[in-house]
Task: structure prediction
Amino acid sequence: MTEIRLRDVRKSFGSTDVIHGIDLAVASGEFCVFVGPSGCGKSTLLRIIAGLEDVTAGAVEIDGEVVNGTPAADRGLAMVFQSYALYPHMSVYDNMAFGLENAKLPRTEIDVRVRHAAELLQITDYLRRKPKALSGGQRQRVAIGRAIVRDPKAFLFDEPLSNLDAELRVAMRRELSALHAKIGGTMIYVTHDQTEAMTLADKIVVLRDGTVAQTGTPLELYNSPDNAFVAGFIGSPRMNLIEAVAEPGARGTALRAGAARIEVPPLAGLAPGGQVTFGIRPEHIAMGAADESDLTATVAFAEQLGGETYLYVDAEGLPQLTLHQPGQVPVRQGERIGLRFDRAEMHLFDADGRVLANGLVP
Amino acid sequence: MAEAAGPSMAPGRLMTETRGRVRLHWTDVFSYAYLAFGVLLMFGPVVWLVMSSFKTPAGLVEFPPTFLPLGQIEVTVEGHDDPLLLFDVTMEDGTTRELAQIRRIGIVSQMIDPADPTQTFRVPIENREAIREFRLALENYIDPLERFDFLRYLWNSVVVTTVATIVTLLINSMAAYGLAIYEFRGRGTIMIFVIGTLMIPITVILVPVYLVVTQLGMVNTLWAVILPGAATPTGVFLLRQYMLTIPRDLIEAARMDKASEWTIYWRVVLPLAMPAIAVLAIFSIMWRWNEFLWPLIVLNRSEVYTLQVGLNAFQGELDVQWHYILAMTVVTLIPVVVVFAFLQKFITTGIASSGMK
Result:
């Protein structure tokens, strides 16, 4: 079991700073996901942990030992690459055995380990094939198998599912989850797909421009985002984020956005005239009669999925809003509907995007 | 046509393949004519060389030249010790007979009928024509191989070519690995220096290299030919450019797999660079086999001669033994042709079509 800790890790390529001081602890046996938009430095961070990149400043610790100067080969980690990076000239068996041969293990031991991993991943039938003759999902398994056989201190995954088609991705996601449950082990997983992050992670680290935007369990991030970026990034479809101006209202404060005026309970730190952004997730907007609604909007289009319905509505002076309704909703394009925001589920952010309140309740 | 002419196609079908139409289009005719011209241009001299290598010295200087090697038929006639040459003779009465020539005096030759040796004829030489048959002058091959120790030269050439090619591939691929896989300051500059040495002709470095070889005591050993040319800028460049195309992920995966640098080079990069290695191997074999100037300088004793130097020995100041030169040229061509025929398939098959997407 392995604990990985980053202390004020910084990285520059020439004069470009890509990682601006990251402190992070990945607990033993934890499935930690780095998520963020492309260019946020998540892959670089993973490569720093792997030892494939040097840090410019700061320290990487594995089990309390600083490994800054330790080459990748001696860190005892295994990595699964986005491209799988299977050796094209070796059979599946040789691909998996390569690392063990380098570790000078006896032949019989190698054979036992490779066959065990192959069984675990159900690739025993392909052991003699070359990677070229495998499908994307099979290659993926081989790449994971190559990591497993080494019995590493921790697994590093660099966007391993991004080359698979949607269906296979969902399947492999489940398998990875099951694998983690079965073999345990510390895993760090990099992805730009927040759904993968939500479904796989014990802990999510949201990265943005080389800094940590927020760290927490998936539902912590979902329910209490620290800032507007995390609020917008986590959750699919995205949270509706609306810029508004605070002004005095009947019950305390009101938020004016476009033609809408939304009464909210009084709130510390929310001064009249202040620029704010409020967020509301699609499932927390209710459709209702016009007289008790916060605003009325026109249905731009509706996605009827049978079990659930997504509505995209336009309201005067506001960006397009997304609604998620359970079941089937009989609305037509162009229809005017009333919308009511669930105050308990509204998020409020200041002008810099920092959270003021998650849930506007008195 | 490119798609249709796959390797599985029968040769017969390939020859009559058209551009999707039933009849030959003029472009097909033109293509075939152009290709035929190309074949003639490329293979004509080689075929002529092979044909000529089987001709006798007399047949070689004959004008007009014949395409096939021919030899005049000789018969043994009773009463004469040496075999006599056979001619078709037009007699004064207009009939033609086959006669053997006893001797020629000026423009008249004295002839005899092989069937009836008692009868002799005096025939003006313009009335007779030599009877010839297709005959291979195999002594062109046998003499040098037996008398002039050409097998020894052949062996020397094989040793030089094989050892030099192996050394070249090893040294060049190691240099290329360093210049392709590692990122360090000055990598580009070093590469430019390596390429820059291409601009220095061998004549410039001939004397200094000879001095070095002499100091090392390698003159008149095969090492003198093998070592100086082992590191070629062309080879380093070729391999390095190819190695740059090997995905970095593979190298990094190998590093994560605890592979040493030698293991990465030997077990990952080298197998993946095989297509480039094959190309360089072919080049190296052809360079080394055909190399002439440098071996001529450092190999002065006939037991260390390579084929090319040995060939030169037939070229005296006054007398050039063309029949031997031509025959031995054919011998020297054979290995190169064989190597090319086998390895050229290797060039076109890239084995690095990979497990990458």
Remarks:
- The longest strand of chain A covers residues 16-26.
